[in-house]
Design brief:
The complex is a heterodimer of chains A (124) and B (512). Chain A has 124 residues and is α/β, with parallel strands linked by helices. Chain A has 5 helices and 5 strands. In chain A, helix 3 links the parallel strand 3 and strand 4. In chain A, helix 2 packs parallel to helix 3. The longest helix of chain A has 13 residues. The longest helix of chain B has 29 residues. Chain B is elongated, with a radius of gyration of 33 Å. The chains are: A alpha/beta (124), B alpha+beta (512).
């Protein structure tokens, strides 16, 4: 079943790269929104909850870690899956983010295969 | 973990080649391009000497390291490298990348500053992963800044290093298909190999600094004067150097000189304008077209008529379908539905004559049209459609619709090997189908409806032309789009509303 997606990254280039990779991975996304930081993402989620959020960690304004905590407080996003995308690959950081409510973690640089592997559990 | 500074330096240099290789491998996997490279032997360079290797615009990624090596080090990409890799990231055509490699200046580099910053981001990601696996005691790497320009001019101001600073450097020659090789370099100040001071040593240093602050003011004034002199000398040096580097022909305008002298120091500073431009470019075309005067030909005709001559066909970009009856255009859907539901003889779910004649195109159309140009790639158009959650995009502008494209048209143009089920057989050519221009797959001519066309006319027109979507146009041009789904939704709403008024249940009973 097609899913809706919110992409949160402060770099427009990176958002484009991620979208292209999602397409190359063949994931069934029927609609998506983009946000440049956590605050913008929360505003969009208030209006329209999504199935999956793909979120960078280091962003100006509200970063990814804080955003995860805020999203988890929203009843309307109880079923939303959050997958973090970051260049940081420290195990403690990944464990911390998952404990805070994220459902997955993809390290940059990624490939269509690694994106597919990490997101396909949330596509059904 | 290496025991001495010399061993640590040697080990870091060895791992530098591996980290660059890891970046090549990651980029190849991420973008489906061939990337490989070779590292040269270690050398000691000063900032001043970098000019002979890098010559033109250079990207410097400032990276903070913690763990085995501590402090900032630098990765430099020459003009060819920055334009090739960043250009590949944003899928610039090969021709533009080649042109930028040859003649690009800071202006062109700053236009893709966001992409250059992301090159650094991914570079740090690859290096961090590699160091984590290969260097015991490594904690993290973090990209703290990106400089685009000529770092050997005012290095202190731009990247925090003096001209005479000695750096332990490793050159890396990288080849990204189908382009010629490019030059990269990792440069480590010697200080990063020195052991980090313990907490006690740090405290002592802080105390010393505090006591120095209490020194007499006379000395401070002398130091200030010296510093001022230093700045002046440096500025003169920089100006002289610039004059020597660039022949007069290369400096056609004052603004070019200014750009050279005031390079962008921080990634964030360059990122913002680029982002704004990107956002502006993504704004629907209709906004920009709002101010344009309506084309007289877009005036809706009273009846569906074919243009009589070839000339008329040229002038009238789309066929207009309408109903002659006069209807209040501002009347909301609910009012129409209210009117339709006053007959008690109508069964729930039954589509009555009233439905077909009272509902108009303007009541069932969606107004957030996804617009694209003929030269947009199918990937870009698909992105717009997904963003607006619509199955159709109009090509052109409101007063001149050139075509219409559906999600199915796009999916038909894309290689089936892009689907995950076939991904292991996917080739480069399959990915290239994302770059097909929409002009090749759009449908034309485009038939349009008038806002007051009744549902009966809408459905009849759809059947006549075998289409599932029709733009709606008034005297100002396209103002909405009617699709089979918007019709179904309107009919469903009308049916439910009618049943409510009659107190009947329209739910389908469950199978027992």
């Amino acid at each position: 079943m097609a899913k809706s997606l919110l992409l949160v990254d402060d770099s427009a280039t990176m958002r484009k790269i991620i979208l292209r990779t999602l397409r190359m991975a063949g994931l069934d996304i029927d609609s998506f929104e983009e946000a440049g930081d956590g605050n913008e993402a929360l505003e969009k989620l208030k209006d329209k909850p999504v199935d999956i959020i793909l979120c960078d960690i280091n962003m100006p304004g509200m970063g990814g870690l804080e955003m995860v905590k805020e999203v988890r407080k929203m009843d309307s996003c109880a079923d939303t899956k959050i997958v973090m995308i970051s260049t940081e690959s420290a195990e403690e950081l990944i464990e911390g983010v998952l404990a805070d409510g994220a459902n997955g973690y993809v390290t940059k640089p990624f490939t269509p295969e690694s994106i597919q592997e990490n997101l396909s559990p949330f596509m059904n | 973990m290496p025991d001495t500074i010399a061993e640590l330096e040697k080990s870091t240099i060895e791992h530098t080649a591996g980290a660059f290789d890891a970046f090549c491998e990651d980029i190849a996997g991420m973008f489906g391009v061939g990337v490989e490279g070779t590292a040269s032997d270690q050398q000691i360079v000063t900032m001043k000497e970098l000019k002979s290797d890098f010559k033109k615009v250079t990207a410097v990624f400032i990276i903070e390291s913690k763990g085995v090596i501590n402090g900032d080090f630098y990765i430099l990409f020459d003009q060819d490298a920055l334009f090739t890799i960043a250009g590949t990231f944003v899928m610039l055509p090969e021709k533009i990348i080649v042109q930028n490699r040859r003649t690009g200046k800071e202006k062109e580099a700053n236009e893709i500053a966001d992409a250059v910053g992301e090159v650094g981001n991914l570079l740090v990601g690859s290096w961090d992963k590699y160091f984590r696996e290969e260097m015991e005691g490594h904690v993290h790497l973090l990209q703290t800044g990106t400089f685009i320009g000529k770092p050997w001019l005012k290095p202190e101001e731009n990247i925090g290093l003096s001209k005479e600073s000695e750096l332990v450097a490793v050159k890396y020659e990288m080849t990204i298909e189908p382009f010629d090789s490019v030059l990269c370099m990792a440069a480590f100040p010697k200080s990063v190999f020195e052991p980090e001071p313990s907490e006690e040593e740090k405290t002592e240093e802080t105390d010393e600094e505090a006591s120095q602050e209490e020194e007499p003011k006379a000395e401070e004034t002398a130091t200030e004067t010296e510093a001022k002199e230093e700045v002046v000398t440096e500025k003169t040096d920089a100006a002289e150097e610039e004059a020597k580097t660039e022949p007069p022909a290369d400096q056609p305008t004052e603004s070019t000189e200014k750009t050279d002298e005031e390079p962008v120091a921080e990634e964030k500073a360059t990122e913002e304008p680029a982002k704004e431009e990107e956002k502006a470019a993504e704004e629907p075309a209709e906004k920009a077209d709002d101010s344009e005067e309506p084309v007289p030909d877009a005036e809706p005709a009273a009846d569906e008529t074919e243009p009589e001559t070839e000339e008329e066909k040229e002038e009238q970009p789309f066929e207009t379908v309408s109903e002659t009856e006069t209807v209040d255009e501002d009347r909301p859907v609910s009012k129409v539905i209210e009117q339709m539901t006053h007959s008690p003889a109508v069964l729930p779910g039954e589509i009555t004559e009233n439905f077909l004649t009272d509902i108009q195109a303007q009541n069932v159309m969606r107004t957030d049209i996804a617009w694209a140009t003929q030269d947009d790639t199918v990937e870009a158009v698909l992105t717009k459609m997904q963003q607006q959650n619509t199955g159709y995009a109009l090509i052109g502008k409101p007063d001149a619709i050139q075509g219409i494209v559906s999600k199915s048209d796009i999916q038909g143009a894309l290689s089936p090997y892009l689907q995950s089920i076939f991904s292991k057989w996917k080739r480069e050519l399959d990915t290239a189908t994302l770059q097909i221009k929409v002009r090749w797959i759009m449908s034309r001519p485009v038939h349009t409806l008038r806002p007051d066309a009744t549902l009966a006319v809408v459905m009849e027109t759809m059947c006549k032309h075998s289409v599932r979507a029709l733009p709606v146009a008034d005297e100002n041009g396209a103002c909405g789009i009617v699709t089979v789904y918007t019709i179904f939704n309107a009919l469903n709403a009308a049916r439910a509303d009618q049943a409510d008024q009659q107190g009947q249940n329209t739910d389908v009973p469950a199978l027992s």
